[in-house]
């Protein structure tokens, strides 16, 4: 009886009993041996290859097991030196066809593992409608795409652009003020941060000329971080919605500048909620003499910016009065009929001037800020003396003589 023929689909050749190639004899012999063990199944043969009868020496090399790839369909075949064949598994896995992409094979294997799969569009591709499947580990999900920094609307160093105000406007929204959103928009924030640092650097140079007590420190020493300290706060919002900085001879105490959209950008100066000892020193100096402080806050240019130097009839903020923490009654140990009771009721001593978005976007905005800071300078120096020097209220000399800065940051709003 003639031996059965075996066929190989890898090289596109068919081995027949009449072939004299060494590889054909090897496969015929093995086929007969496996046939006795009832393990050989004859593979399907592509009809397009059955017509080829070229059995030269090069074909025999391609059929030899030593020339086979470990990643092809003949992976289970052992080298010719092996005389035994391992028994096939009782439940063999289906070998993927040669034309199946590797990615499709991996997807087929992981189809039952419960891994999440998301479809995302590839950017920068020739066809934007082409989609690819992103393989994710179990528990992972796609939250969005990284937003690139805007290419238009840039401004020269020393100016604030609308891009920065737009970013802060988005950050104000509760659904945007979280770490995931901020991470996706980090390129936009980095551009706004770079723009803000350049503005502070130019503004510091001008401010140092207007007030020699303020040194020209680098931006990193005066700029406040955008990250909030939420350790002891009920508000767990992770980011501030304002870009801010403080300027003084000691660093971050003194004139405060904060930029916020919707007409909330401001420059402020003074002491916001000073400590117990500092507040007591201010009040003691005021009780001795309030002349210098009243002269400063009632100056025409000061009142033109911050309002008349007396409490507002309806309790609104005006000049240094009307702060949220202002006392409703006289402080302990002070007669409610004291001539300076309006000053002694103050818990904070600060003034605030706000700008519209239109002003902020102007090229000469930093010069406008410096003009306001010049009006604030006598108040800052006077307040610092009231906090540190006994009988400072009696001093009627120049503001620059013993001037200083307040010991406390001004609020951002």
TrEMBL record:
Q: Where is the composition biased (Polar residues)?
A: 1-21
Region annotation (Disordered) ranges: 1-135, 390-413
Q: What's the superkingdom here?
A: Eukaryota
Query: Which residue stretches does the UniProt record annotate as biased composition, category Acidic residues?
Result: 36-57, 126-135, 397-413
Q: Name one Pfam family in it.
A: DUF2461
Kindly give the PANTHER family that the UniProt entry links to this protein: CHROMOSOME 12, WHOLE GENOME SHOTGUN SEQUENCE (PTHR36452), DUF2461 DOMAIN-CONTAINING PROTEIN (PTHR36452:SF1)
Its recorded name reads Uncharacterized protein
Starting at the broadest rank, the lineage of the source organism is: Eukaryota, Fungi, Dikarya, Basidiomycota, Agaricomycotina
